[in-house]
Amino acid sequence: MLRTHTCGELSLKDVNQEVVLCGWVQRVRDKGGMIWLDLRDRYGLTQLLFEEGKTPAEVLDIARSLGREFVISAKGAVIERLSKNDKIATGDIEIRVTKLQILNAAKLPPFLIEDETDGGDDIRMKYRYLDLRRNAVRKNLQLRHQVARHTRAYLDNLDFIEVETPVLIKSTPEGARDFVVPSRMNPGEFYALPQSPQTFKQLLMVGGFDRYYQIVKCFRDEDLRADRQPEFTQIDCEMSFVTQEDILNTFEGLIRSLFKEVKGITLDEVPRMTYADAMRLYGSDKPDTRFAMQFVELKGQEQDLTSGKGFGVFDNAGMVVGIAAPGCAEYTRKQVDELTEWMKRPQIGSKGLVYVRYNTDGSVKSSVDKFYSEEDLKKWIVAFDAKPGDLILLVADNADKARKQLNELRLEMGSRLGLRNPDDYKVLWVLDFPLLEFGEAENRWFAMHHPFTSPKPEDIDLLDTNLGQVRANAYDMVINGVEVGGGSVRIFAKELQQKMFEILGFSAEEAQEQFGFLMNAFEFGAPPHAGIAFGFDRLCSIFGGADSIRDFIAFPKNNSGRDVMIDSPSHISDGQLKELSIRVDQA
Amino acid sequence: MLRTHTCGELSLKDVNQEVVLCGWVQRVRDKGGMIWLDLRDRYGLTQLLFEEGKTPAEVLDIARSLGREFVISAKGAVIERLSKNDKIATGDIEIRVTKLQILNAAKLPPFLIEDETDGGDDIRMKYRYLDLRRNAVRKNLQLRHQVARHTRAYLDNLDFIEVETPVLIKSTPEGARDFVVPSRMNPGEFYALPQSPQTFKQLLMVGGFDRYYQIVKCFRDEDLRADRQPEFTQIDCEMSFVTQEDILNTFEGLIRSLFKEVKGITLDEVPRMTYADAMRLYGSDKPDTRFAMQFVELKGQEQDLTSGKGFGVFDNAGMVVGIAAPGCAEYTRKQVDELTEWMKRPQIGSKGLVYVRYNTDGSVKSSVDKFYSEEDLKKWIVAFDAKPGDLILLVADNADKARKQLNELRLEMGSRLGLRNPDDYKVLWVLDFPLLEFGEAENRWFAMHHPFTSPKPEDIDLLDTNLGQVRANAYDMVINGVEVGGGSVRIFAKELQQKMFEILGFSAEEAQEQFGFLMNAFEFGAPPHAGIAFGFDRLCSIFGGADSIRDFIAFPKNNSGRDVMIDSPSHISDGQLKELSIRVDQA
């Protein structure tokens, strides 16, 4: 090794020892007679000391020639510092350097390699290898390694076996868009990159593997929104001879173990909520349960406390639903107007926002006083179980739209009221998803999870009568309002699988061509099985208390799917295209 | 869980316990009044017992309806067996079944799910999910999991950090052919799949990560020979602030640890051999050192014991080189002729084979007696340090060809003499590879390892004078004649890297376009670094004592790069092609 120690490990117990350190020059303070230099590596910072008269002249000369980010090797004795720094692990000591070597010079980096950098997103992506030197980014990747390590430890311990499934597979029209790979040896044919190893893990169950996992790259050629990556990583899992309950317990165990090992947090028991309740109480299938502010329907399936008073907006709406924002009764008119405008933006599309102030003095004031008596409003307050000081905010629309809008408002109010602390973790299972959802544009049914998801046995008859009512044995894990994982009990009988493909609009031939191998496999003794997959990048970002997954990926792509560091994708040669039997056709 | 136990864990201590097992019907023996059924899962076999008069009639009916590979659930009490089977872990007990349920029926599988199967390669690949049920295949994948697990444990323990590098990268003309992926969002542009994460791991070193590893899928679009796969897995590693010696020690440690943990074998210290010696003594850069039979050059750089005696074949050859096959002096003329023919096949291309029998009675007999006196031949015997009973086999050609041919003969003789026991492991480091090799066809120099490999510092001046003589700080690990890993100390100075690209025929512009990001990175403080990558599939096959890597991959492709199970690659729709701005062009 070119070094005897790292820059993070020396302390008073090492005083007088001769050491060699290697690393990057973080900063140099030249006070004339004395020079201090902070040397940095992955493990920490160590201060180097150069002193006129004591340090050899040629070493001083080299020290004075160093710039930021030079890579150096320094030899010297560990000494106790006069003025100690208790902010860093090595703050009690410094190195009196006797030998100094420049291993590699460095041009001035285009942004500061500090916790607080002056580099914008674009420049940091272009020079990602410099960004990786920053503590923040390095710690994110170290966290990622820890999450992976403890995931494997937990699953290995339960007799799961990690099996690698292929990356070059087959394109299927169901689901998101595939990335494809032209085959040179099979001209005119293409592989596809997997959106998930779904069918392969099911085949592993048919193959008797019984408990499988894989931390695996997956690919989706979707239009990228902020924080979506064309390649992403999943913790992919499947089990045989289990019920939904076994999956929930096993993977609640995984998450509890990760919180314990990685964050030192002992989780409460993970509550469970049906999809129907989640939509009713939060207007979302991934509610943020760090705070309550549950929906109350003044007009809905259960009751109608709004109609017949002459307020057309409510009278004509399918649903009037609201939240009670605690302590917000004192919002000014301006604040309420601003909220109303926020709700009316096209991204949310509310037609308006009705408020009821429940003042601390017990009085009530509303924007619809004209239509509703104080007695009416008091009934609303009772329905909300509101407290003096609450501000009730109401939207009216058809049920789907009203819930969607109010979900946004609830999250916004949660943020404004500081109820969404990233260090507070609320984990939730959402259960009993609908099996199918109707695509208005395509005028057909789609699988809400995927076509291999089993309907609830008690709902199977509904497949012939009321597709929209069929519930699936499907489940999502939600942390702080983010879906981190999801899965389902799978179909394992050929007939039911065929029926599902039929419902999804596959002809028998199409189903056979695309998924024949799986349906054939079901005929040779497929066990009951179920599984789950976690979004690994997302899980890491939540453990890191961050919003963006990009910070937890070593070399992410931008929103155009481009790696600006290596400048990819790029053109390839005509020779390559010819070998692959394809032509570019930018019509 | 649908079961209380697996089929591999019950024993006498569980007698009288009521259990539920799930699994596949391995076989049924119906002796009229008694039926025995072997139930199989991933963990083992357990015998189920059904008895006329004791077992409920409806259970007997179901039992009689079962076929091979039916998936069943059986409930009953554990009882001691009358006739025990000490070949299986559960051989002392059986289950007296009281409840039996068919979870899924099975068609008769197209081949026997037994250790010795009647299924050929093709049918087993098509029904890989059934092949996976066989012990042999399952154990290979379990071994693979163990090798991965212990690799991670060893490296984690040394502060290595696993970092995922991208799969959608950029095509580069150097090296093997890339698989490419058309970018929909960047029409006319393509990603490439990585042949290895080489440049990314070097950038991680520039980013200060210092000790990196990854067990990672890599891709090469090469014409497939037996036992090459278009996608394969590497254990990819890189370290900063190290010398070659540190890499050799760290990864010798990895291999020793794997042998210990996975195989229970304590390895001897791993010997080291230069490339030059490997070629001289074995005619190969990956010698099988389980046996000696080293080459002796009768005519070569050191000596010439053959010329001037009127034997034109030897006189005109650049090299006469041979091996002494122990105990083979008694080979019949027919056997020697057969060996000669074997050597003259086009795959080897020898012009002939000269033999010298050193009989046990001390007499000498050769196919070139006519030209060489007994005294001449005795000198050869001394040169070989041959023992009575040895058969010396000689080839003559230019040095490269002669060595290549003799390498094949040596391995063949090793096999024939039973000297290549798969349970005997000899690990070897081969060092000091040439930096460059000349491509006659292309009339230019190629990097023997890759363009990022550092020349030996003492050979750097030769870059200007004698490219063929420059040795690299590159190393391979060889086990039993198979290269399992290789790596090098890397170039970390921009100027040297530029010079390498120049030598390899890149124009300055091409080098900048393809690898500019790396050379730029070298300007911002790149540390000295070095690394290695192991072929994970190959390593697993060696640990499994097998020749083929295919048996250690869950879903391998055939020699045309085709997955015959899912029938991939396949055609994609015109709509997909259009979205990707490409057209198939099978001109």
UniProtKB/TrEMBL annotation, chains A, B:
Q: What range(s) does the Aminoacyl-transfer RNA synthetases class-II family profile domain occupy?
A: 141-556
Instruction: Kindly state which reaction or reactions the protein catalyses.
Output: tRNA(Asp) + L-aspartate + ATP = L-aspartyl-tRNA(Asp) + AMP + diphosphate
Q: Where does L-aspartate bind?
A: E174, R220, H449, R490
What are the UniProt keywords, alphabetically?
Answer: Aminoacyl-tRNA synthetase, ATP-binding, Cytoplasm, Ligase, Nucleotide-binding, Protein biosynthesis
Please give the residue ranges the record annotates as the region Aspartate.
Answer: 198-201
Q: Name one Pfam family in it.
A: tRNA_anti-codon
| InterPro entries in the cross-refs | Aa-tRNA-synt_II, aa-tRNA-synth_II, aa-tRNA-synth_II/BPL/LPL, Asp-tRNA-ligase_1, Asp-tRNA-ligase_1_N, Asp/Asn-tRNA-synth_IIb, AspRS_core, GAD-like_sf
Residues that bind ATP, according to the entry? R220, D221, E222, Q229, E483, G535, F536, D537, R538
Q: What is its EC number?
A: 6.1.1.12
| One Gene Ontology MF term | aspartate-tRNA ligase activity
Q: Which compartments does it reside in?
A: Cytoplasm
Just give the chief location class.
cytoplasm
Q: Top EC class per UniProt?
A: ligase
Recorded hits in PANTHER family, A to Z, give: ASPARTATE--TRNA LIGASE, MITOCHONDRIAL, ASPARTYL/LYSYL-TRNA SYNTHETASE
Q: Which family does it belong to?
A: Belongs to the class-II aminoacyl-tRNA synthetase family. Type 1 subfamily.
Q: How does it assemble?
A: Homodimer.
Biological role stated in the UniProt entry: Catalyzes the attachment of L-aspartate to tRNA(Asp) in a two-step reaction: L-aspartate is first activated by ATP to form Asp-AMP and then transferred to the acceptor end of tRNA(Asp).
Its recorded name reads: Aspartate--tRNA ligase
UniProt organism field = Dyadobacter sandarakinus
